[in-house]
Amino acid sequence: GTLPGWDRVEQLVREAYERYRGHDDGVVADYIPVLAEADPAWFGLCVAESGGQVHGAGDEDVEFSVQSISKAFVYALVCEAFGHQDVLDRVGVNGTGLPFNSVMAIELHQGHPMNPMVNAGALATTAMVPGATPAEQWEHVRTGLSRFAGRQLELDGVVYRSESETNTRNKAIARLLQSYGRIEADPLQVVDVYTRQCALRVTARDLAVMGATLADGGVNPITGERVVSAHVCRDTLAVLAATGMYERSGEWLFEIGLPAKSGVAGGIVAVAPGKGAIGTFSPPLDPAGNSVRGQRATAYLSRTLGLNVFASS
Ligand code: GLN
């Protein structure tokens, strides 16, 4: 592979774990009530190479809800179904510079959702998922994300219900998009499918394999299954580079140099095209909603494994 040898990657993953496990900056999300019950000490990381080798450390097998990381993979499924131009026109690819659940960003752009990694754009994307009914759309999402992970992913019913009872803002965003003619389906049903996709249970290892599938041009390196086309991976990674880490996307790209996506339960996936991916999990977040230990561990691994996409050597 293009990464250092097996022993060296194993060693660096263990080092990243030891180096940052004691760091306790950041705050566990509580706007979805059940997320506040997460243990702030949880810390897992995993590197999946495009050849299929997997290296983990710490709580790599602890399950948590995928949350906004689902946006990247649902986007890929929708790009696969609709193609480059349609999705570009309807969802966009430019950053908002505002928090992920900003209503102001929608108003500032005459109802345009701007990009698929903020909630407005993610809702517009989920509205496009193939299926005659919301139940079929949900099945398409769950099956698609499971193919990225190479195993059957399940809904966390507790997280789903907790978010469903409190997601008034997402319902407002969906209504607002409807008012601008950006969502044709029933907005509350779109929010329901979106809330389910966010409540899928994954591990840091799953995130690494899902990311490595994008790194590998759409073929899952463990199962060998083609999930999406290479074009779709390229488009998805471009969007992640521009917008995957919310309003911190520029700083992230400057410091770490990898397309990535975070979620408020504490997951991050970072993708090194052609090489593999890093999945991390640790619940305490920075103010933008990105896991603090996850960012540090990913930065360390990007540097020591030589993954920065802008580096010439
Ligand atoms: N389900 C969460 C929400 O819509 C996801 C947000 C996130 O992970 N940033 O608020």
UniProtKB/TrEMBL annotation:
Top-level taxon of origin: Bacteria
Keywords: Acetylation, Hydrolase
A Pfam short name: Glutaminase
Residues reported to bind substrate: 68, 119, 163, 170, 194, 246, 264
Catalytic reaction annotation: L-glutamine + H2O = L-glutamate + NH4(+)
Gene3D superfamilies: DD-peptidase/beta-lactamase superfamily (3.40.710.10)
The protein's Enzyme Commission number: 3.5.1.2
NCBIfam families (UniProt xref): Gln_ase (TIGR03814), PRK12356.1 (NF009020)
Family membership: Belongs to the glutaminase family.
Quaternary structure note: Homotetramer.
PANTHER family registered for this protein in UniProt: GLUTAMINASE, GLUTAMINASE 1
Protein name: Glutaminase
Source lineage: Bacteria, Bacillati, Actinomycetota, Actinomycetes, Micrococcales
